[in-house]
Amino acid sequence: MESLNDDVSPYGVYFMGSRTVEWCRDWYGSAYYAISLEKNPTGPASGTFRVVRGGNHNSDAEGLRSAKRHSVEPLDNTQAIGFRIVKEK
Prior knowledge:
Blueprint: E1 21-27, E2 50-53, E3 69-72, E4 81-82
Parallel strand pairs: 1-4
Antiparallel strand pairs: 1-2, 2-3
């Protein structure tokens, strides 16, 4: 069994790869990053799909990157999608 310290990012975040795809607050816009702020873009104000990031056990190497962005219908409830609780400073 791996210890909690075996999968810590340089930012102190645990288990960013291969567990589940994670829901994000943002709506998905395929061309949004071309017109967004460079730092901390928040996504379009509305949309049809939500953003999920990362990958899971079914993902290829490209899909396992924690920054990998996918679009998913908001009511999708597959077991491969989870979430991360974030505490802002």
